[in-house]
Amino acid sequence: MTVLLAVTAVSVTTAAAEPSRADGASAETVVRTDHGLVRGAAHGSYVTFDGIPYAAPPTGRLRWREPAPAPAWRGVRDATAPAPRCVQMPMPGTDGVSGSEDCLYLNVTMPSTPPPTGQRRPVLVWLHGGAFLGGSGGDYGAERMAVRGDTLVVTVNYRLGVFGYFGHPALGSAPPFGLADQQAALRWVRVNAARFGGDPGAVTLFGESAGALSVCAHLTSPSAAGLFQRAVLQSGSCHMSFPPGALGPGTPAYEPFAAERDVQDSGALAARQLGCEAGDDARVLACLREQSTERLATAQLMASFNRPAFGNPLLPAAPGKALAAGRFHRMPLLQGTNHDEMRMFVGQSLAAYPIRTEEDYRTRLDEAFGPAGAAVDFHYPAARYPTPALAWSAVLTDRSLACTTLQEAREITTQAPRMPLYGYEFNDPDAPVPTGLPAHPDLPYGAAHGFELPYLFSSVPTERPLTEAQGTLSDRMIDYWASFARTGNPNTPGAPHWPVLHTAGPVLSLAPGPGAIHTTDAYDAHDCAFWRGARERLGA
Asked: To pair with 108 at 20 to 30 A between CA atoms, which of 31, 87, 195, 505?
């Protein structure tokens, strides 16, 4: 694991002491990191430093190794544009590789004004979602979180798919490389945050979807101890899972983490398919590392390796089991889900696999829950919902995300009753739809998976901008997140009170409009007592 050496902090304002430069770099946008000078870009109220390497390129002999230290550089490194994203899951109908294996870079956004003398800003480190198959830190504009929240925001690239989560017997108990990348980025933050005006002792790790699953993993990872002091999990918990057929008829059940032996077995099979099976372990690994990016970045291989393995030093146990047993880092925690999470997933496959009738709905229930399907149908009758597709989405939302998140909260508060934990539910029924999602008259998206992101970040493409009321909600959410990063408590003066979550409720409902932010009993609203009993009695 990369361990960077601590050095004396140099803030942005002291960069003015650097000698004048012929390349035109302004002193206000040049910072000396532990590896060399970087030149960012000024944007009025904020400054960005994009594409800063936090580890060496994991290419050639460094493919499928823990992140190695980035090499130092001479002169001033340009940091005015994001670096390439990590190799992505190929999209249907596309040719060639999207992204690069040389991708271990991060981006820093901060207010253009220095913090008050003797003070440092809280740091938020963002881990993007994308099913461990896609996305990048550069997709998220963090200027509003930085300026309005008066924070330092770091967004991170990390290895994906077969490059980030491959396993093989010859690799032994290697860590999930994508998670190791994230910890290397956190070590970079610990060393360099103060140079950008940030407080390395007030780091909040936050993420959405796969990013939230990553945060959960680090909460249970011994090697993450001391790397962050608060955590935010958006739409992803240690217990999140999907039943068979959730992502379309015939799709298997999904658990986000996998046993190391299973990942190694899959890796051995992939090696044979690639012709890398002859000789000793060293020869097999050499053969695998000689494979081109293009040969590895296939849809089949990428999708076969998108589950971080447990049973290694970084992740000794399945995070859900570690959490239930009390083996997690104690710190303030903020977590939540969106009211209509699974409508996004259902909507992506609805054209190919329509749910037009109650019979279609019952067929889906039977595939997902087997003998328990009838009990689910009785508890979630299609007639209660405007369309069968909405009924199916409600079942999946409650079973897979809402109630598993509250289950996690129950276990945390049981094991650590004094640990501050705040729950939320994003519930804007008219949230802007992300660009590219298909429209379905019988499935309005509501507050679906990922729909809260434009309220926290710019540059998240949507079909329309936020309305005035939604902009006010966005301001409030940024205030809550920034206050939590600063103090471990999201409450701010003049805002609706956000209570501590005890066992299973209440949580704060986040919606636009006067009085729309209020506490709610999400446990009852999402029928979590039913799902708790269904798991215990029926295995649903």
From this structure: 87
